[in-house]
Amino acid sequence: MKIVVGLGNPEKKYDGTRHNIGFVAIDYLASKYNISVDTKKHRALIGKGVIDGQKVILVKPQTYMNLSGESLRSIMDFYKLYPEDFIIIYDDINLDVGRIRIRKKGSAGGHNGIKSIISHLGSQEFPRLRIGVGEKPKGMDLANYVLGKFSKGENEIYDKMMPNVAGAIECMVWDDVDKAMNDYNKAFVE
Question: What angle do CA 67, 95, 89 make, to 5 degrees?
Answer without folding.
Answer: 40
